[in-house]
C-alpha cells in the first residue's frame, strides 16, 4: 500500500508527494499540524493541510526572506521575525555579523517544538546567543512596539486562520511604527498564478505607507505554482541600490548578490499585477 499527501492548492489543482511515514499529527490551539517524512522532499511540515517547509527546498525561501533585507539595510542590528516557527529564517539571520539580536514571535509554540524535533537542520539557530524566542501574537507584538527594529520579516502562513490579519493594511502601518526611522520590512506575499489579487492589494497598501516598495520572486517547488513573491517596504534604503562593498560572503545555496538584483526583474504578467 502507498501513502500519498496532496495539498489542494486551488479547487482544481494540487501538489502530491509520496509519504514514507507520518511522524506527528496534532490539532494545536491554532491549527492542524502534521510532520511527514516524504520520499522526494524529506521531512515536511504542513499546517492546515498547506506545505510550510521541507528539508529539500527550504533554503530557497528562508534565504530570500532573510538576506535580501539584511544586505539592503547597512546596519541591521535588531531584527524581528513574525511567524517563522520552523526556525529557518533565524538560521539565515544569525549568519550576518551586524545583527546583534534576532527576536522571533510565533503564535504557535507547537510549531517550534516539533520543528526542533523533526527539522533539526532548519531549526538549528533557536539556541543561538543572538536569538530570543517569544511564543505569542505577532500582530500584538508589532502593535506594542515603537522604533524598535531595523528590519522586520513577516514569515507567515498563507492568509487563512491566525495569519489573516498579517495581510491587512493596519498591520503594515503598525510595522512602520515598530521600525526605526530608516527601517525596512519584508513579507511573503504568496504566488502570482493563483493569488494575483492578494499581491496587488498588499503592494498597494504597502506603497501607501513606505516610500520604497518593491516586489521580488523566487522558485520554491513545494509552494503553490512554484513561483513565490515577497514584498519589501523600506523607509530609506533601496534594495536595488546596494553598494557592492556591502555584500559579504556567507554560506548559501540559492542567494547570491546577483540573485539579489535579478529577483526584482519580474515576468511581465507579474509586473502587470502591481501596476
TrEMBL record:
Catalyzes the irreversible transfer of a propylamine group from the amino donor S-adenosylmethioninamine (decarboxy-AdoMet) to putrescine (1,4-diaminobutane) to yield spermidine. The active site is at residue 155. The keyword Cell inner membrane does not apply. Homodimer or homotetramer. The gene is speE. Residues 2-235 form the PABS domain. Belongs to the spermidine/spermine synthase family. S-methyl-5'-thioadenosine binds at residues 31, 106, 137-138, 162. Pathway: Amine and polyamine biosynthesis; spermidine biosynthesis; spermidine from putrescine: step 1/1. One of its GO terms (molecular function) is spermidine synthase activity. InterPro entries: PABS, PABS_CS, SAM-dependent_MTases_sf, Spermi_synthase, Spermidine_synt_N, Spermidine_synt_N_sf. Transmembrane segments: none annotated. Spermidine binds at residues 62, 86, 155-158. Its EC number is 2.5.1.16. Keywords: Polyamine biosynthesis, Spermidine biosynthesis, Transferase. This is Polyamine aminopropyltransferase. It catalyses: S-adenosyl 3-(methylsulfanyl)propylamine + putrescine = S-methyl-5'-thioadenosine + spermidine + H(+).
Amino acid at each position: 500500500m502507498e501513502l500519498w499527501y496532496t495539498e489542494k492548492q486551488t479547487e482544481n489543482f494540487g501538489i502530491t508527494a509520496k509519504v514514507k511515514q507520518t511522524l506527528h499529527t496534532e490539532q494545536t490551539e491554532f491549527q492542524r499540524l502534521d510532520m511527514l517524512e516524504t520520499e522526494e522532499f524529506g521531512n515536511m511540515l504542513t499546517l492546515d493541510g498547506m506545505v510550510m517547509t521541507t528539508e529539500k527546498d527550504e533554503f530557497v525561501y528562508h534565504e530570500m526572506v532573510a538576506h535580501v533585507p539584511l544586505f539592503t539595510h547597512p546596519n541591521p542590528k535588531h531584527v524581528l521575525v513574525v511567524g517563522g516557527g520552523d526556525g529557518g529564517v533565524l538560521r539565515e539571520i544569525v549568519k550576518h555579523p551586524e545583527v546583534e539580536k534576532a527576536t522571533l514571535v510565533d503564535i504557535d509554540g507547537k510549531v517550534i517544538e516539533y520543528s526542533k524535533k523533526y527539522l533539526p537542520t532548519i531549526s538549528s539557530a533557536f539556541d543561538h546567543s543572538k536569538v530570543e524566542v517569544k511564543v505569542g501574537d505577532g500582530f500584538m507584538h508589532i502593535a506594542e512596539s515603537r522604533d524598535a527594529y531595523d528590519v522586520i520579516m513577516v514569515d507567515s502562513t498563507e492568509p487563512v486562520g491566525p495569519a489573516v490579519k498579517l495581510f491587512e493594511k493596519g498591520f503594515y502601518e503598525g510595522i512602520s511604527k515598530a521600525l526605526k526611522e530608516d527601517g525596512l520590512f519584508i513579507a511573503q506575499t504568496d504566488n502570482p498564478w493563483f493569488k494575483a489579487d492578494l499581491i496587488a492589494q498588499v503592494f498597494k497598501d504597502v506603497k501607501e505607507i513606505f516610500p520604497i516598495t518593491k516586489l521580488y520572486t523566487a522558485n520554491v517547488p513545494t509552494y503553490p505554482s512554484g513561483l513565490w513573491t515577497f514584498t519589501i517596504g523600506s523607509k530609506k534604503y533601496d534594495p536595488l541600490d546596494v553598494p557592492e562593498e556591502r555584500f559579504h560572503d556567507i554560506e548559501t545555496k540559492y542567494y547570491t548578490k546577483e540573485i539579489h538584483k535579478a529577483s526584482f526583474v519580474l515576468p511581465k504578467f507579474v509586473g502587470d499585477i502591481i501596476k
